[in-house]
Amino acid sequence: MLRILPLLCLVLLVLTGCGIDADQDVLCRKLIPAFESGPVTELSTRSYAEDRRVLRIDYRSGDQRHWIACRFAGTGMEEGRHTLVSVATDRTGWLTDMRFAMLQQWLRIKPPRDAGGAAPAAGRAPPTRWTPVLFLVQQIVNAATVACVYGLLALGYTLVYAILGQINLAMGELTMLGAMLTAMAAAGLGMAGWATWPPALLGVLVLAMGFTAVQGWTMDRLVFRRLRGVRSHTPLIVAVGLSIAYQEGVRLLHGARDWWPAPVLTERFTLLSDGAFTVTALMMQLAILVLTGGLYAALWGIMQRTAFGRAHRACTDDIAAAELVGVDVNRTVAATFAIGGGLAATAGAVIALYYGGVNFFTGYLIGFKALAAAVVGGIGSVPGAMLGGALLGLVETFWSAYFALAYKDIVAFGLLTLFLIFRPQGLLGQARGRGD
């Protein structure tokens, strides 16, 4: 399985895509002149993580940045894929029915016909026999970035669980901290004119990883080290308390508003097209997969070839015996929390720079989904964490594409429930036999 995993990552790297419908993007961009009298530049498109029917286009008009959002009646190959139902801008919010009707008149959008008399949109070829295949390919590539987010955070969960046999539910909030810090730093880079400079973005990532690594180390030093010998559910309850404390602390310091960093690495490529459906890819997607693959390779090398990796494996096998043979357990556990925090920050940086819309509550649901990925892959197994993230990303993306979007979270946690019932150790996990 370990030999197959790099090949899987390579395949995902080749197939990666942004999941943006090119036809919807073109239609939404046609609306910008209705709100801007002058030329616009630096256009970039992103989709909303929670509602794939909505596209948001960021652009610059003169010396100011603006955005426009378009909601369509469907996604993918659904019937309403090219039917615009509402529009919002940063200055007006969602348009009222009257203003939207006037916008439709301005764009000369005709109301859709009934199912029996619908005709293909002008300039768009009818579906071919390859359209369903291209749509399937697009869904595979859509899952790549989601899998990276879940996999990186699942690594943090699995490293801590492997050494302590405890789940740190506050790991999701470390992702939130990384996302918020990345968003604020990106805003500062934008004011300095460095928002798209790769070395500056890399510096932001290092800053976020370092900050959350310190937070992870502090969690262990001040909280979990004191509870290491406790046999009750106290550590789990304390982790929930830490999670709430981080959420409320960030909310009080920065408010409940969403942060939308300016999009970066927005070059888009057309991978495949049959005239009716286009598979597209963003440079940002390639960067995310390269980053994830590099971090996974670095972690694998650390775990297999360094003194810390040997100490971690010894503590995983039997923490009491490891201490008897001279392993510095406290330092090993603290370093594990720090590494987990750094990986969580990377997941947060991906969320902030690719999806946007981060706030104090960002890490809550993402954290539980990453925990589900870790359990499915085999919590305690480093390759299992990445495999679980890939599987969960595929399941969630496919469900969103082919079925009702509102049920995707139910499916994700339903998958976790099934694994807990029929295979508690996960795909690559093993039953724990610890002496602590």
Automatic annotation (TrEMBL):
Primary localization: membrane
PROSITE patterns, sorted: PROKAR_LIPOPROTEIN
Record carries keyword Iron: no
Gene Ontology CC: one annotated term: plasma membrane
CDD domains cross-referenced by the UniProt entry: TM_PBP1_LivH_like (cd06582)
Keywords: Amino-acid transport, Cell inner membrane, Cell membrane, Membrane, Signal, Transmembrane, Transmembrane helix, Transport
GO biological process, one term: L-alanine transport
Signal peptide: 1-22
Name of the molecule in the record: Branched-chain amino acid ABC transporter, permease component (LivH-like)
The organism of origin for this protein: Azospirillum lipoferum (strain 4B)
Taxonomy of the source species: Bacteria, Pseudomonadati, Pseudomonadota, Alphaproteobacteria, Rhodospirillales
